[in-house]
Write a structure and sequence with these properties.
2 copies of one chain form a homodimer.
Chain A: H1 2-11, H2 13-24, H3 36-52, E1 56-61, E2 68-73, E3 82-88, E4 108-110, E5 113-115, H4 123-140, E6 146-152, H5 162-168, H6 170-173, E7 177-180, E8 192-197, E9 199-208, E10 214-215, H7 216-219, H8 226-235, H9 258-266, H10 272-276, H11 289-295, E11 298-307, E12 316-317, E13 320-329, H12 335-349, E14 355-360, E15 368-369, H13 375-388, E16 393-397, H14 402-411, E17 415-417, E18 433-435, H15 436-453
Helix pairs in contact in A: 1-4, 1-15, 2-4, 4-15, 5-14, 13-15
GO molecular function (chains A, B): dipeptidase activity
EC number (chains A, B): 3.4.13.-
Domain Peptidase M20 dimerisation (chains A, B): 195-352
Chain lengths: 455, 455
């Protein structure tokens, strides 16, 4: 039967790609209120697709924010297991637009890659699941197992409402295990099982000085410069050896074992310098770049602004300055506690002459880890290997998927992360793309997997 | 004769105010290419006014940038002295617009103040000079002395082309002394002679890291964060005691004498905390706020930007970060040398994993000081006292007027700074204004002064 399904996918490849392009053309930027309608349109696209397959009980569920698309398939019978498939149809903002080589919302294939915002994160990966479900129905008339679909529209804004939905609808959403495709492989065509994810948390620091921008000639020497004050605060939080200098930040961090260091070293990751274009890579003292990115906590300033940013010079002392910070956490770090440590540190080092405000970002998640030898994980590895004809590797990654930690927390069920992205996908950046190989082999992997786990 | 002139100004007060409003309504923002035409219109306004008075040889001189308005009056005869009057008709950008209580380019009088961008810096002060010249001509049929007018349109962008013009047209512009009204008094209705100005210079620091914004989960731990790198660089340039920690920055700085400390302490300046709204004032260790603002060099970050500044969170490692810095200099500090010291410092402390570029701003000027007991200065003090019926005080200020240093440098002639602005004018900020008292008494002061210096 696998052959028929694969044949269908092959014969309908062009039509499926066109349908994916239609999906990618909708600018469903969840963080920008101006795209509220587009987010709805993306949800409607999925609703229509699920009804066509057909799934049952297809509905757009109100969440208080952007809607969540839910659907069920129960045709595999009482004996068959039930999987909860999670994905998200919202995307990151596309700015800075001028850095894109093609319109982020007019998908374009160049050199074996499909370029578009969301091509990899996560519309492309959501789509191949739907395509595989379609293929099973059109050829076999049924799916190998029962399926519950949960595709949200708020992942890129921290899945603000999902946690409550998962708790309130525990009965409706409960399944034997969950499958999520919102991650990547360590290299193109290198099957990869993701057994660990980082958690994260964030704060926004605002330094307020004078109540209006001041002429630097009239007031320079009488007031504290908010940007300089912010610089002093930020530089006190991480040193030049990339060690976070916030008291207690590393308390309780699960150490990296020697075995894990070997595992991390074995897996050939991407060339960070080549992929990022930096003069040289820089990592926490005592750890390699791969160890730091996969298994050590990070502290990043995502953005900063204050004063005059236009052409030429404006000789002012600005009234305020703001920095946005997010941290990626590892097992042993409680997001709420880290947020509190960051706030305590900032308040303690804040200089005189200004007022400093620390806003705790709502989005937060604990780190997640699963045992690499779990049966569902092993079957995933086999399915990958069949499709890609290559041994599967096991890695942890620095990314965070809040829903994983929440499902783990609320449903206590195994979660399998089947990612098909690649390091070259430029997630969250200009020129995001997804390899056509991952489109084809990703679908094949899923066909094998559903057949392997159906008992 | 003075009475006739003052009477004319009084009788035509409303019409003159309407004419000033017409001048202030032109958004002649010199730093913004979008306002190029408006800058031309402001120049044309002055050309028309000068021709009406009438002045001779009125012309818009090409400078390579915005035009300079030149005119002459030689009717006072060979024996009378010739003054070169300088001012500027360009203004600072009005942003942030939302902080204005009335349209910056629709002048409005509230509580005895005229609110508009340029009301004080420098259109308002240029205008009262023109009004006084008009008054002399309309009543006496002549001016008390010969006048050369030089009103430029690039002061707010560092008078980029003026230096060359002053050199090339030395013959045409030469005079016995110069008068400039582009400064202020220490308090409203407190006649003030400005005998010292700070020089200034600036640099722009740009830190480049990855060649595109990176997903902080995928690359956090492998690359240096450009914003954090910039924070480390900036925080190394001035400490929390407001002491600039760039090697050699204070070398050769003319110390503040005890006499001068007394002079500075005597003059009641504004309440910095009240005027700026800061929690508390902060100044260089060992100096009062008045000493630091008037007679010690300053270092200010005017603006900073990098990464995501929009709503919500964007978990990226930004590709670059930039900071704009300007310093105010005192006698003994060479602008070029200070720029070099700043660049050397930045290059020395720049961390690994990023490339750091230091752009030296073209605008630069040395500090300026004149002897308080010069005859032309004493006469100015008397004229102020007649108009304001109050003793004149002598101060240095932290502001910089490049043209002063350049005229000093090229023409070696006395320069008299007759300022009528006040500390509450909010120069370069939202809600800039000019006191109506300064409009009236400023004109009266000028009438007295031209009569006093005509021999």
């Amino acid at each position: 039967m696998t052959e028929n399904v694969l044949a269908y996918l092959n014969e309908n490849r062009e039509q499926l790609l066109n349908k994916l392009n239609e999906f990618l053309s909708i600018p469903s930027v969840s963080t920008d209120p101006e795209h509220k309608e587009d987010v709805q349109r993306a949800a409607d696209f999925i609703v229509t697709y699920l009804k066509d397959i057909p799934f049952e009980k297809v509905e757009k569920q109100e969440t208080g924010g952007h809607p969540l698309v839910y659907a069920e398939y129960n045709g595999a019978g009482e004996e068959a297991p039930t999987v909860l498939f999670y994905g998200h149809y919202d995307v990151q903002p596309a700015d800075p637009l001028e850095q894109w080589n093609s319109d982020p919302f007019q998908p374009e294939i160049r050199d074996g890659r499909l370029y578009a915002r969301g091509a990899s994160d996560d519309k492309g990966q959501v789509f191949i699941h739907l395509a595989v479900f379609e293929a099973f129905m059109k050829t076999e008339g049924k799916l190998p197992l029962n399926v519950k679909v949960c595709i949200e529209g708020e992942e890129e804004i921290g899945s603000e409402n999902l946690y409550n939905v998962l708790q309130e609808k525990k009965e409706q959403f409960s399944a034997d295990f969950a499958v999520i495709s919102d991650s990547g492989m360590v290299a193109e065509n290198q099957p990869t099982i993701l057994y660990g994810l980082k958690g994260f948390t964030g704060v926004e620091i605002t330094v307020d000085g004078p109540d209006h921008d001041l002429h630097s000639g009239m007031y320079g020497g009488a007031v504290r410069n908010p940007i300089m004050a912010l610089s002093h605060i930020l530089s006190s939080m991480k040193n030049e050896e990339e060690v976070v200098t916030v008291d207690g930040f590393y308390d309780g961090v699960e150490p990296i074992t020697e075995e894990e260091r070997k595992l991390i070293a074995e897996v050939k990751g991407e060339d960070f310098q080549q992929a990022t274009g930096v003069p040289e890579t820089v990592s926490e003292k005592g750890y390699t770049a791969k160890e730091h990115t996969q298994a050590r906590p990070t502290f990043e300033i995502n953005g900063i602004y204050g004063g005059y940013q236009g052409e030429g010079t404006k000789t002012i002392i600005p009234s305020s300055a703001t920095a946005k910070i997010t941290c990626r956490l590892v097992p042993g770090q409680e997001p709420d506690r880290i947020q509190q440590l960051l706030e305590d540190h900032v308040k303690r080092v804040a200089p005189s002459g200004v007022t400093v405000d620390v806003k705790k970002e709502k989005l937060s998640a604990k780190a997640y880890k699963v045992e690499p030898d779990h049966p569902l994980i092993k079957k995933a590895a086999n399915s990958y290997t069949k499709a890609y004809d290559k041994e599967t590797v096991f890695v942890r990654m620095g990314g965070s998927i809040p829903v994983v930690e929440w499902m783990d927390d609320i449903y206590q069920m195994p979660i399998v992360l089947l990612g098909f992205g690649t390091p070259e996908d430029r997630l969250h950046s200009p020129n995001e793309s997804f390899p056509i190989d991952s489109f084809d082999k990703g679908m094949e992997t899923l066909v094998h997997y559903w057949n392997e786990v159906k008992e």
